[in-house]
Design brief:
Blueprint lengths: L1 E2 L3 E5 L7 E5 L17 H4 L9 H12 L2 E5 L21 E2 L2 E2 L8 H27 L6 E8 L2 E2 L2 E2 L4 E4 L4 H13 L4 E3 L11 H10 L2 E8 L6 H17 L10
Parallel strand pairs: 3-4, 3-7, 7-12, 10-11
Antiparallel strand pairs: 1-2, 2-4, 5-6, 8-9, 10-12
Helix pairs in contact: 2-6, 4-6
Length: 252
C-alpha cells in the first residue's frame, strides 16, 4: 500500500489482472492547513463531502480481484478529482445555498496550491498504475467507483446501481445485465449520464491510455454497514468476472 497526502494505492500495482479501479471521492478529509468551522463540518459527512461507502467497497473488491485501486485522500470540497479544473464547480463555494468558510474567496494562489498538492498527484498516480499494468500486456478495464444518495433534493432514486459510460455502450449494457443477474436493480447512465460529460476522470484517463472505461454508481444505503459492503463487493466481483473484455471492443 502507498499512502501520501493526496492518494492511497491499495492492492498490487504490479498485478496482471485486467482491472484498474479508481475512487475519486473516497475521503472527506480536510488536509492541513485547510480548516472547517463548526457549521461546515456536517456538510463534510454528506455526499457533498465524499462518496460514503465507496472506498470500503473498492478496498474489498481489489482484494477479491487481486488488482489495484487508486483512492483520493482529500474531500471533493477541497477540489473535485472528477472534474476538470476549468469547470466552475471544481472548487465549490457553497452547497445547497450554504457558504463554505474554507472555500470563501479562494485566491488563485490557493487554487494552484490545491491543484499541485492534491489534484495532480492523484491523477498522476492513475496514469502511473495504468502505464505499469499496460506494460504487462492484455486488455484493461478502468473502473471508477462512486456512490450516490438515495434521496437527492427530494427526488427518490430507485436504482441500486448505475453504470455510466460515454463510448463503450455494448460493454456497459452487458455489465448492467450481469449486475442485474446478481440481484442489483441497475440502470444505464443514471443517476447521471456519462454522455453528458459526468465521468471526467475515467474518460480522461481512458482516452489517454486507450483502455475501456466505465464508472459505477452505488446507492449509499446498500453499502452503509460493513456487512452490506462485503455482500455488495462479493456480488460486484462476480459481475465483473462475468464481463468478458475483448480487444474488438476497444475504440481508438
Amino acid at each position: 500500500m502507498i499512502v501520501n497526502e493526496a492518494v492511497e494505492v491499495a492492492g498490487d500495482r504490479h498485478h496482471t489482472r485486467r482491472l484498474v479501479v479508481t475512487c475519486e471521492h473516497a475521503s472527506n478529509r480536510l488536509p492541513e492547513p485547510i480548516e472547517a468551522n463548526a457549521s461546515d463540518a456536517p456538510w463534510l459527512d454528506t455526499h457533498w463531502g465524499w462518496d460514503p461507502g465507496a472506498a470500503a467497497v473498492v478496498r474489498d473488491l481489489v482484494k477479491r480481484k487481486s488488482s489495484v485501486a487508486i483512492l483520493s485522500r482529500f474531500s471533493r470540497l477541497i477540489c473535485d478529482p472528477n472534474r476538470s479544473p476549468s469547470e466552475p464547480d471544481w472548487i465549490r463555494s457553497d452547497v445547497e445555498g450554504y457558504q463554505l468558510s474554507f472555500n470563501s474567496n479562494v485566491s488563485d494562489a490557493e487554487k494552484a496550491r490545491r491543484k499541485v498538492t492534491y489534484y495532480d498527484p492523484f491523477h498522476e498516480e492513475i496514469d502511473r498504475c495504468l502505464s505499469e499494468r499496460l506494460s504487462r500486456g492484455g486488455d484493461v478495464l478502468l473502473f471508477s467507483v462512486h456512490s450516490f444518495t438515495p434521496n437527492y433534493m427530494g427526488s427518490i432514486r430507485e436504482m441500486e446501481m448505475g453504470v455510466l459510460f460515454d463510448r463503450f455502450d455494448p460493454v456497459a449494457e452487458r455489465f448492467a445485465g450481469h449486475l442485474r443477474d446478481h440481484g442489483f436493480v441497475t440502470a444505464l447512465n443514471a443517476p447521471y449520464s456519462g454522455k453528458d460529460g459526468k465521468i471526467f476522470s475515467a474518460q480522461h484517463h481512458g482516452h489517454r491510455h486507450g483502455v475501456i472505461y466505465l464508472e459505477l454508481e452505488i446507492r449509499q444505503d446498500i453499502i452503509d454497514t460493513p456487512e452490506k459492503v462485503l455482500d455488495v463487493s462479493s456480488r460486484l466481483c462476480d459481475a465483473l468476472s462475468d464481463l468478458q473484455i475483448r480487444s474488438s471492443n476497444r475504440q481508438a
